[in-house]
Amino acid sequence: MNPNWHGTLIRHLLLLITGCLFIGLISGYYGWSLVVGLGLYLGWTLKQLLRLHDWLRNHQPDEAPPDGYGLWGEVFDSIYHLQRRDQRVRGRLQAVIDRVQESTAALKDAVVMLDSHGDLEWWNRAAETLLGLKTPQDSGQPVSNLVRHPRFKEYFDNGNYAEPLEIPSPVNDHLRIQLYITRYGNNEHLMLVRDVTRLHHLEQMRKDFIANVSHELRTPLTVICGYLETLLDNVDDVNPRWKRPLSQMQQQGERMQTLLNDLLLLAKLEATDYPSDNQPVPIDALLRSIKGDAQALSGQRNQTITLDIDTHVALKGSEAELRSAFSNLVFNAVKYTPDGGTIRIRWWADHLGAHLSVQDSGVGIDNKHLPRLTERFYRVDSSRNASTGGTGLGLAIVKHVLLRHHGHLDISSVLGHGSTFTCQFDPVQVIKPRISASVS
Ligand code: ADP
Prior knowledge:
With 440 residues, this protein is of the alpha+beta class. The chain folds into four domains: 5-102; 107-195, 2-Layer Sandwich (Beta-Lactamase), CATH 3.30.450; 201-271, Helix Hairpins (Orthogonal Bundle); 279-431, Heat Shock Protein 90 (2-Layer Sandwich). Helix content is 52%, strand content 18%. The chain has 13 helices and 14 strands. The strands form three sheets. The protein has a six-stranded mixed β-sheet, covered by helices on one side. Strands 2-1-5-4-3 form a five-stranded antiparallel β-sheet, sandwiched between helices. It starts with a helix and ends with a strand. It catalyses: ATP + protein L-histidine = ADP + protein N-phospho-L-histidine. The chain crosses the membrane at residues 12-42. Member of the two-component regulatory system PhoR/PhoB involved in the phosphate regulon genes expression. PhoR may function as a membrane-associated protein kinase that phosphorylates PhoB in response to environmental signals.
């Protein structure tokens, strides 16, 4: 392209006007020669414009623009260069898209792109094997029509994708898949699906092993504890010096029994997703009975235990599981609160759901322990644990029970100033109160 095309254009125009004036000088008709000269120039310009228009409308993808002279030559050249540059950029972009599509198509994990309504837009080959999607029939179909597991629908509609979801594959019940959903762009979804069958089997083996070992140990331990009790009853007749070791053995035996019971309960909680007996549970009666047990556990320790309950709020779920979770929290409060301390149990509902809080004025927990407190066998202080006879499984049981009841546990605590454990239940789990009343 000529960089000095402005000068060339002015030179050409000056040349045309000079030519016209020269003809005017010869012929004596200055005006007419100028009109005819400029008219011819206008006609030629119009012709070039029509050629350009014609080419823009009808050209083939690789066809070069027509040759031109002067300004029009420059215009045609510029358009041609722009067209070539555009083609090169498009070619490079297409190559990137092809590479991305090839690599995602070759992935063992399924990749599915969904639009903002949850309809299928694009997926790779693995999605056909893991989810049974069919190309191209399923394009545009809502994903929940094709992955029909009720937990998937609930998970997808809920919109909280912080944790992945594990379900059986819609193609084959023996395959376990894990789904990760990420939102991007204009509320579109990217769904990654992994085959976790092997991991699931290993996890299942671990759970079965713990459940079986706990179950198998229960009978011998019951026999040993039974004999220890008989021996202790008659220890004075046999040898009074055995009294101390025998009672220590009995104490440890009882501790092992509690541990096995907790392990079996955890195994049972993990074996199923939802409580089998999903019934309305009268929480007020449940808490009153737990308060009675807590008072018995507290004994002569002079602790004040108060109840503050909204008597008309009930919860859907398993009474046995909820009793186990709530009593773990209340008994912990009794165990970890010094003599003369206070324990406050509150049960109420609001627009966020239902809540049970157990607040104590006890020893408290350092902040650094809070995130790990619900892990199995996690101990804040092992010496403290040994003196209270805890198994380290109580809060793990609470966490599992709450998960199965659409709930979670919040813990707040200040070392030396007590702790508050709050069970938060989703509104779906709550049986709405008609009238509210408070009892202490
Ligand atoms: P444990 O059977 O040992 O009580 P948990 O799982 O119930 O096991 O609790 C885990 C740990 O959390 C306990 O060992 C204890 O250190 C701490 N903890 C639980 N509840 C309280 C509480 N109310 N106050 C202080 N520490 C607590």
